[in-house]
Amino acid sequence: MTLYGKMRTNDEYVPGIAWAAHRGASPDTAARAEGLMNRILSPGAFRMTDRQPDIILFMSGGSERRALELADPSRPVLLLSIRGNNAYAAATEVMAWMVNNGRIALLSDAEDAVESGLFDRWRRVAGSWTGLRDSRAGLIGTVSEWLVASDVPAFILKHKFGMELVEIPWNSLPDYAGQIPDKPLTERFAGHNASGLREAAKVLTLLRRVIQENDLDAIAVECFRLVQQRKVTACLALAQLNSECTPAACEGDLASMAGMMMIRAVTGSVPWMANTTRVTSSTVILSHCTAAFDFVSSVKLPTHYETGYSLAVAGRVDATCVTLFRLNDRLDKAFVVEGKVVSHPQIPDACRTQVEIELPEDQINIFREKPLGNHLLAVPCKCEEILSLLCRYKNIEVVS
């Protein structure tokens, strides 16, 4: 079962709301709290609770102690207040306590939160992390030796994401050559005269088998061993999986795999994992051979760049704007920025799919002075705000 099938979508997540008031509050306070939320939200958009709330609604001053009793130490919380009755003052005091005690919280007027979209973003983020909890990811082979800043220890994946990492050596798997070619992949390119398509489709069949047998939600594949020893790439296989919303990172890059899972959870799609190929004074050029088929158009199947063997994905990135994302190898820092697509280079000595993206000057400086790693994740839309909130929820610092 893939992550797409196993986790609930953000639209299905219903956040829990608790209310807090002073000790002498009238008996109808609970009904008034629920009535307010029903007035400003759609039916079924929340549930009232007094256990592990995602949101605490302040109904009056003097509610600070009650709010701290309700707040779950293991769960970030959105602090909302009604207008008047010293409710915002109480919420501010609690917010200060949260900051002073290293707890993750946000503060807002309740109606402002709904009108600005904060409530919905918080719901999506809470739902995303709930969906990722207890997920399983597979590392097929090892992290490629050149990825010195992308090897995330298994205990960190467990601590930060609640994710179990399953390590699967290549020599424990059957030979890909004995597999039946994957039908969805061969049918996708039925009109192409691409030598090696059947072999690439056999690799995908093997990867699907590994995912199913190990109940994996995502994979990172050490693909160079395969192409060097057997002269067949995993590029098309990974592109097809990503197109189907199963995060699949190449080169055994665990930092990228974790980021792909995060983005999939909150946006519903899997980003493109790409090399930082060149940085100019105002742009960055990205390239890679594994672009998902739904990320590009005019797809061609040339050989793999570094080796000249088998097949790779060469396509045109049609998005006019993208969001770039990257986690470090300790999952406590992230880079996130929105940029504008300005050209589609055809550099001969770079990976096959290529795009040039214009970025703000201060973000360009980050690439030079404090990059988190080579590989970047590109999402074909503007989503910096939700990704930044997704990081804040888990106390992941966004570098600037």
Can you walk me through this structure?
- The protein has 400 residues and is α/β, with parallel strands linked by helices.
- It has 2 domains: 3-132, 3-Layer(aba) Sandwich (Rossmann fold), CATH 3.40.50; 136-398, no CATH class.
- The chain is built from 14 helices and 18 strands.
- The protein has a 6-stranded antiparallel beta barrel. A 5-stranded parallel sheet has the order 2-1-3-4-5. A 4-stranded parallel sheet has the order 7-6-8-9.
- Helix 3 packs across helix 4.
- It is elongated, with a radius of gyration of 23 Å.
- Residues 1-9 have low confidence and may be disordered.
Could you write a compact summary of the structure shown?
The chain is an alpha/beta fold and 400 residues long.
